[in-house]
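User: Fold both of these, please.

Assistant: Here is the first one.
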Amino acid sequence: MKSIERRAREHSTVSTGRERAANMMANRPLVWAFIATLGVLLGLALAWTLLSLGGVLFSVFAAGFITLGLDPLVRWFQRRGMKRGVAILTVIILFVLVIVGMLWIVLPLVVTQAVTFVEQVPDMYKNLQSQQWFQDAQAGTGGIIGTVYNWVVGLISDPSTWATIGGGALNVGLAIVGGISTGFFIFILTIYFIATLDSSKAAIYTLISASHRERVVGYAERIMQNVGRYLSGMVILAFFNAVFSLIVLTVAQVPYALVIAVAAFFITLIPLIGTVLTTIVMTVLALFVSPLSGIIVLAAMLVYMQVEAYILTPRVMSKAVQVPGSIVLIAALAGGTLAGLPGALVAIPVAAGILLIVKEVVVPAKARS
């Protein structure tokens, strides 16, 4: 009965508001046009403000997603008997050590190998041309393979290509400085978010009306836990892929294995297509060494893809929301188009959260109506 009366009052309020708007448009058109113009200007100002703060908002969202990815590790330490404060401190220390290790040890090696790789690409191609199998393939395809390889090698080894990608030397330098400052800001913000995650969530939950708070908090906690499990699971799978790629490339005697393995780590963060892309690239690069190296890399990665699909992924991602493959591809494509690789990574857990809301809220509501 109360629900019917409340709906009647809401309907009456809406009808009254519509009548007032219609009367203003008819009797005071200038006032109505002025108010409408102010609304449009306010919307444009808000859009301009959001665009201007795009970098800051990206850093905040990135730090938030990293925090959600690290939260399952905090809970894992808690289940092992640690108090939450000690578990948070342990995760922060591990996070700092990983970042410092990457900056001091891994990054210099990767940069050095990447520069050397670009310089050595023409010599590697000359060595490839001297191999009999390449000459046979070249003759069998009417020169198509050689043309494609020439174009790729010229593109990679041409300095103007990298200047064009970066928008010029000055823009490249500014991008590097901006990337370092943004990364440092995200790093500091992530530490703060990890330390204050529970208190921050509690403060936000107080803004929700008491009648709906319990239900909203329940859904929010489930979404954040699933997003955290999804992100941490993808990082673990990408790490396994990168380590295995480094081992395989080293065994196959492919040069610059560390650079390729680090690139594989970031590319394989994208589900479904990441591992396929890295397998193709690694096989092509292995062919620069010899056909045997290419066969070894391809066979090993095909075996790994089966192990990842049927053993690693079910174990690592068992508690995360399962996202259909078609939605993964659509979300990754949309996110990548809007914000590159970070957008593709963020779009997939966002899609998982939306699916959870649809499954738990929208579908039951439609079933009751």
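And the second sequence with its predicted structure:
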Amino acid sequence: MLVRPTASWFTAGFSAGLGLTLAYLAVQTVLRISGVLTLLLLALFVAISLEPVVAWLARRRLGRGWAVTVVIVASLALLAGFLALVIPPVSTEVSALVDAVPKWLGQLHDHHSALGRLEDRYHLVSKARQQLGSGLGPAVVGGLLGAGHLVVSAVTGTALVVILTVYFMVGMEQLKRFVYRFVPLSRRAGVVTLTEATLVRVGRYMLGNAATSAVAGLATFAWCAVLDVPYAAALGVLVALLDMVPVVGSTVGGVVVSLVALAVSFPVALGTAGFYIAFRLAEDYLIMPKAMRYAVDVHPLVTVVAVVVGGALLGIVGALIAIPVAVGIGIVLEESAFPRIDAA
């Protein structure tokens, strides 16, 4: 009679503890690099969004390398145009603020000015000096350092996304072939067909979203130019960028432009708010269906849920990629999962 060896409680406990420790370390590692993973995911979706354009140019006898180069140059040109529109008004406002500070300081000592009367009544300068001496100074320095760190992180993240996007665009075919090798050969052909269809339709969706955002930006520029709202071009670009965020992006853009329109008059600001309400309805029922006729239809409930969940998980990046992910999941369900269930 053979006696099978049994593991001791010590061995079982040690194995379980080692497994839990490794799982904990893996989770902590993922959390620490979550920011990098988010940027990596964003770069991948940007590359997928531009893939239809790259593929179209490659079919025109350009070759994939030249097609990627053309897309990159065009994208950099758009970025340069955006900076050319935004930087001058921002620098003008900063210069005006710096020039106004000495005037405000002079008015604080003028007992006949509004600021001087406020100083006489509330002693703002002396209170500010007391706060600076009691710890506000380090807080201000810490705030400046935090703002500088935020700017550096934003610049670094943008550069990383651009570099990764270029790599993904150049090596998209090699990357797909590498991923396909993890699928058993007996099912690989079906997976390749489904994946290619999903990537094409997700790319079309993203391009359609970019087209509707461009329409929103042009409409904003035209409205602001006609009503003499300041910084019409910069506001148009801002609205176009915000409109790419589903559900809430166009609303936030409309609020921002309406607030800027207050610099002209209250009726103009009120009319601007009404314009964005009407434009939002036209975008949802006229512009978006036209732009998405070559992609897929997404139910409004799916849109809202996807954006909320994506925003909760990954912030604004999650909101941006939420609907493309939902589109991809919907295609997989319609083309693969549901037919198998119906055939069972």
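The chain has eleven helices and no strands.
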